[in-house]
Here is the input.
Amino acid sequence: MPTARDPFADALAVFVQDTAGRRNWGNIGLAEILKKVRVDEAQWKPAPDTHSIWEEVHHINHWSRFVLDRLEARGKPTKQAWPAAHGGAAGWRLALAGTAALHATLVRRVASLDQDALTAKHAASRYAMAQLILGCVSHIAYHVGQITLLRRLYRHAGRPV
Here is the structure.
């Protein structure tokens, strides 16, 4: 007998989809903000000790993958990650495609959870799966704000958009 879909899991999946996609009620979504970012803008840093948009995207992906791994009962503990940008225009297109695929997988996985799975804790975490998902969405939204600021700084630095 198939398990009934959990309405909370469905709502979480929509929240992930909107935040990683077009927009949620609070901000433009990740996919939307990245639509018109060219490789030179993605690589640009306003100062040496800051992160580029590309690094922000890699960082978002690292932690989104971390949450997906927990939802799928795999993965090892990980430390803060800010992978560097590399690969030029082709690398940027791959990063964007990988971001879209990762978040589509995360949305499908979240939507498939039942109440028991949402309240369960991964062996390597003190948080329930629903907390990890909400944290992931908050993390994406925070970095969408960072990307928005980087885009504004890029324009104000006289860079062509």
Summary: Residues 7-156 form a domain with the Four Helix Bundle (Hemerythrin (Met), subunit A) fold (CATH 1.20.120.450).
